[in-house]
């Protein structure tokens, strides 16, 4: 197995970008730190071709439990999600952001409180792979050659607490809806075809942590949900986000975008923080999708 890079490249680029742009932590000040922990709910009513009856989906992504996010924040997110009464809850990756020598019991205990009659499903993101030990960093410690075993151990731990991780897998959550989830684009081996196998005539929703998969989608997907970018995390008036962790720059920074074949996709700003414990003009969000029967 090829040895991975010694540090998390995304985090290194983010910090370099902040310093190059003159946006060091001291400059942004305590207000930006406070913004990092004040979340909201964004609501999106939208028809979805193929549905036979409406469905409400809560999408939570980029929790980043570990370095800057503790169980108290997750508890608030879960309580707010339950109050929305979703039919289905989806987690968009980067649940973890610290070395996981043992399962993260405080995080899992909170996630187990999520209430959704159609279940709770998630995918892995790049920081999850750091937590497995695939690459090193301040919060991850040294590279561990047994990281695939750690990934599997954590998958089982999430499952025991009611969260099914989909890694290039799909599930028929209803007779009219197929849900597919793919592996992380940067550190995994994403396979959209495998995730959508056996979808039949159901409407298809795909969860991908990284939106950079969007230009490479096959036809026939009704909706894609992504995270990863945090909306840039630090945004400036008139300028927007100086740094977006995407090879497409601002194209998939946040909000509603289009992938190949005009596939609609939503890129969430996420809930946690990465690199530095701050946000600016980029509120953390729980995404609520009220999907209806297409006319």
TrEMBL record:
<dbReference type="InterPro" id="IPR006311">
    <property type="entry name" value="TAT_signal"/>
</dbReference>
<dbReference type="Pfam" id="PF00149">
    <property type="entry name" value="Metallophos"/>
</dbReference>
<feature type="domain" description="Calcineurin-like phosphoesterase">
    <location>
        <begin position="55"/>
        <end position="231"/>
    </location>
</feature>
<keyword id="KW-0479">Metal-binding</keyword>
<dbReference type="InterPro" id="IPR051158">
    <property type="entry name" value="Metallophosphoesterase_sf"/>
</dbReference>
<keyword id="KW-0378">Hydrolase</keyword>
<dbReference type="InterPro" id="IPR029052">
    <property type="entry name" value="Metallo-depent_PP-like"/>
</dbReference>
<protein>
    <submittedName>
        <fullName>Metallophosphoesterase</fullName>
    </submittedName>
</protein>
<dbReference type="InterPro" id="IPR004843">
    <property type="entry name" value="Calcineurin-like_PHP"/>
</dbReference>
């Amino acid at each position: 197995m090829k040895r991975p890079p010694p540090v998390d490249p995304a985090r290194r680029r983010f910090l370099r970008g902040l310093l190059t742009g003159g946006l060091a932590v001291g400059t942004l000040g305590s207000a930006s730190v406070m913004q990092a922990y004040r979340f909201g709910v964004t609501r999106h009513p939208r028809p979805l071709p193929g549905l036979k009856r409406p469905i409400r989906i809560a999408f939570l992504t980029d929790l980043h439990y570990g370095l800057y996010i503790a169980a108290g924040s997750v508890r608030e997110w879960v309580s707010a999600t339950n109050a929305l009464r979703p039919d289905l809850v989806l987690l968009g990756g980067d649940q973890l952001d610290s070395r996981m020598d043992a399962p993260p019991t405080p995080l899992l205990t909170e996630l187990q409180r999520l209430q959704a009659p159609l279940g709770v499903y998630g995918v892995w993101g790049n920081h999850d792979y750091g937590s497995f030990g695939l690459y090193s960093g301040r919060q991850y410690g040294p590279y561990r050659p047994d990281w695939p075993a750690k990934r599997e151990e954590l998958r089982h731990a999430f499952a025991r607490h009611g969260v099914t991780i989909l890694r290039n897998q799909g599930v028929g959550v209803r007779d009219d809806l197929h849900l597919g989830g793919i592996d992380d684009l940067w550190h995994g081996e994403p396979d959209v075809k495998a995730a959508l196998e056996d979808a039949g005539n159901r409407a298809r929703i795909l969860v991908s942590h990284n939106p950079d998969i969007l230009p490479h989608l096959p036809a026939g997907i009704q909706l894609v949900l992504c995270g990863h970018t945090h909306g840039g995390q630090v945004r400036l008036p008139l300028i927007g986000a100086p740094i977006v962790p995407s090879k497409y720059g601002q194209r998939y920074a946040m909000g509603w975008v289009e992938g190949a074949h005009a596939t609609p996709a939503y890129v969430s700003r996420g809930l946690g923080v990465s690199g530095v414990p701050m946000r600016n003009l980029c509120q953390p969000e729980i995404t609520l999708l009220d999907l209806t029967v297409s006319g």
